[in-house]
Amino acid sequence: MKRVLTFITLTTLLLSAFAQERVRVSGYVKDGDTGEDLIGATVLVRPLQIGNVSNVYGFYSISVPKGEYTLEISYVGFETMERSVSIAEDQVINIDLKPEREVLEEVVITSEAQNKNVSLNEMSTLKLATQTVKKIPAVLGEPDIIRSIQLLPGITSVGDGSSGFNVRGGSADQNLILLDEGVIFNSAHLFGLYSAINPDAVKDVKIYKGGIPSRYGGRLSSVLDVRQKEGNLKAFNGEGGISLISARALYEGPIVKDRGSFMIAGRRSYGDALLRLAGSDNTAYFYDLNLKTNYKIDENNRVFLSGYFGRDKLDLGGIFSNGWGNATGTLRWNTTLNNRLFANISAIYSNYDYSIDNLATGTESRITSNVINYNLKADLTYYLQGENSLEFGLDQKWYVFKPGNIEPIEGSNISPVAIDEKFAIEQGAYLSYHGEKGKFLYDVGTRFSRFVRTGEQELPVYENNQSVVYNGNLDRYEEGEVIGTTNYRRGDKIASYNNLEPRVGLTYRLSNDASVKASYNRMYQYLHLISNSTAPTPLDVWAPSGPFIEPQMADQYAVGYFKNFKQNAFEASVELYYKDIQDMVDYVDGADIIANNQIETQLLSGDGRSYGAEFYLKKNTGKLTGWISYTLSRSERQVRGLAETDPGINNGECYATNFNKIHDLSVTGIYELNDRWSLSGNFVLASGLPGTFPEGRYEYSGLVIPHFGERNQDQLPTYHRLDLSATMKRKPKNGKPRNSEWVFGLYNVYNRLNANNIYFIENEENPGQTQAFKSTLFGITPNVTYNFKF
Amino acid sequence: MKTYKLYISTVIIALGLFSCDVETTVELGAPEQKLVVEGRIEYNEADPVLEQTITLSVLGDFFENATTPRATGAQVSVTDGDGNRFDFLETGEGVYQNTSLVGEIGQRYTLQIDWNGEQFEAIETLTAVAPIDSIYQVFEEGNVFEDEGIKIAIDFTDPSGTEDFYFWETYLENELQILPDPGNKNNLIGSDEFFDGNKIEGYFPNEEAVFAVGASVSVKQLGVSENAYNYYFTLYDQAGKIGALIDTPPIPVRGNIRNLTNPDNFPLGYFYASQVDEKAYVVE
């Protein structure tokens, strides 16, 4: 912490030297009704036509020569505000924007759409409004951020009801999911049926698929940055909803008016209550809690405390129970050291854990597992002249991995076993310059990352230093021979990695409504999710890089053309990307990864590549809004052998990843029929995912067993689905609008039985007979949700 | 480690409310000519094994629901570490037997097969096993995973300080009881990783099987090599798919037999050598 402060002070002094005779206007942009900070509001100084976009805390800062100006402040969904100002010295101007009001009788488009997608130096980045998420038809009426983003270009999943998502051909563990800066290690509730984030509590969702800014690091493929609502600074407010699967509620309000506020939100599924009513002694439920408070100490200092706690619980007939969940806590201090230096200093805690109680007779046991992460970081923005700025910061994380403890319960004869705890430190430092020169905008920066595995741990020493060996006689990979152990004491360095991660983003504005952009980013990832199932499960183990597992690295190149039409009513883009991944882990055939203390003996490392073209057309205004997204892409992996003589996986040739989706089209539309009714629908059409089909069957040990060849050489049938929903606002009572609505939905309208998977088995009732089954999830599913405000 | 099985079943239940599996067909190519070997050398101290049997068959078409073709006319022999060679004679279609080989703990056996112009070989060392201490019946109430009924349980004591791998077979009136169940890999085989040196009581060597009063049941406890254990683990895993996204991906199951003539066309199956302890029980 001391080092961080010294760093800040030094840079501040250094940067102050550059300050010139100009004056500066800075402040916060807020929602006038609730006092929430507005992220990404545009502040334009006329007639200079220079501007700034408010950062994630609503802060903006612009340097101008002394003079008389008009500030124009705009934000989607808010009335654009103009304000004449005379600036003779540095000045703080906080702005409260008024939300647009929908006028009865007809829906009037009050604000002009913005051209930010064209004009900002930002590509491969998508934002989704919580309001939109709530209007997209959802399974069982439960609005879901992670399912919704899969309707956007370049984002897919390995199947309905799978946890996690895949960005531009990257695996699910390559996404950094941040909730108020805290890392969410598992984004799923109920094994992937729902995502772990309650949309009510969310203010802003942004996903970076490429051109990832220097301030983010640690995962290869994407950053999903979720910001929670801060809480209404002006009045107490509540909202809630009841769907077929869960009930949720949110309450927010001022602690001290205009100075401090809180937000608390909770959600719980009640499927278990229904199960119990049905006389079953099994339960399955999830809940999550979101909390945020903030307090403004003075004009320049603000503190935030936010937390998230999510949990899933399963209990089966008293013989098995399983729980897992994420918890995060963030304490944050925002400060403007002078009106051109904005600093955000955070202390973050994050924990993912699961436990399993097995109560089957004879082997009663409990398994527990944790990943704990403490994080201290400082992010600073220094606003230079004009539209130029400098971003820099430091980041330090301490990790504790407790992959698994097995202990006997109820006096069983299971011996307690603890898989080795692992410790690591991840450090980051970055510097990035944002510059604008006429029509040309650039962000050039680099991140330096360092990862240190530390003791205490006893590590095996393998013969020839090989944790996996190839048995040429039987053509298969086997565990390396352990010839000794090395003891590392607490704090001893086991392995360390230092890497530079350059990031570059360029934009050339062709006109007011068209631009070309390009970006490059290099990313390193030091954590690996070890999973040998098609989709990640809550029981998968995160393993840090170390002596036997190299860090993963990705280089991504992207270019794009961005064009808006009809006063920005339509925005369109085409992006091409190429991503090259090195040292990603893959498991060997027949890998045993459950409670394995030497996981490195089951892994080979390989390379991946993915490339594609993404087309996106979005309509922002009017009665009909929505988007069409089409992605043409390929995602491959290549795992060569340990040496020339061994074949690797699939004979060392490139093969499709589990999430290789060649064509992926989705159309989402929301139609405001009148002031009471809105209709929405989405249609998805995509190539089938890769599959592995048998070459034949054979009899062994009383069973009939399918024989498979190489991985992912076949393809599942084409996927398509249509969902519809209608939202009805309740009738005004005595001329006053009532803040409640009904949402009626129909998921998978024409009941297409899409194959999540095709599997080949021997019929249990009719041994000797082998069959292929297509497993599908969610046929036609109706839903009703009631949302209300109080 | 029954946990994984329980976990799988849990997911089926959790997702089962919304999922539906339908039978389907897919286009598959004709299977290649691939040898399948089911070879076992067994040694039972109390009840000597009179016939050692090697069964040979060939990979069949997946959707052709008939017995897979047998591999006939092969030359089959087993040679022990002292150079004694035992020829196996074809006593039935694809069934090769020898009556003079008496297994020996720690002895290294080499299986040689000459079939269809290709030569195959496998090597395995006969692994010892602890005896079954007792066998008895237990009435188990049904639960979400298993039927209600009388099950057969055993007690045994794992030798301390050694890595031991177990394989169990349950017979009803001399017929092997086995179902293609995802739990097999956590039930029909075992590793003492989590119970080294402990006495295990009330172990169900086949959790799926329930028996009627009067049924004549016997349980074989076999010691297998770690390699064989891994083989069975993968085999049962591949035979017990449930169609959920947590299934492990389909892969070929490689045993310990290799094709000397054409290494790329590797044979399937396993050749194991085990000490066996067998206990019989009549359900009351």
Question: Can you walk through the features of this model?
Answer:
The complex is a heterodimer of chains A (790) and B (284). By secondary structure, chain A is mostly beta strands. Chain A contains 5 helices and 53 strands. Chain A has a 22-stranded antiparallel barrel. Chain B is mainly beta and 284 residues long. In chain B, a hairpin with a 2-residue loop joins strand 5 (85-92) and strand 6 (95-98). At the A-B interface, strand 46, strand 47, strand 51 and strand 52 of A face helix 1, strand 1, strand 14, helix 2 and strand 17 of B. Strand 52 (770-777) of chain A pairs antiparallel with strand 1 (19-24) of chain B, so a sheet runs across the interface.
Give the gist of this structure.
The complex is a heterodimer of chains A (790) and B (284). Chain A is mainly β and 790 residues long.
Low-confidence stretches of chain A: 103-112
> How would you sum up the major sheet of chain A?
22 strands, antiparallel, barrel
Number of helices of chain A: 5
Number of E strands of chain A: 53
Round the Cα radius of gyration of chain A to an integer and report it: 27 Å
Regarding quaternary structure, what we see is: heterodimer
Strand content of chain A: over 45%
Q: State the share of residues found in helices of chain B, binned by percent.
A: under 10%
What is the number of beta strands of chain B? 17
Low-pLDDT residue intervals, each spanning 5 or more residues of chain B: 1-6
Structural class of chain B: mainly beta
**Average pLDDT figure of chain B:** 88
Distance between the termini of chain B: 30 Å
Number of helices of chain B: 2
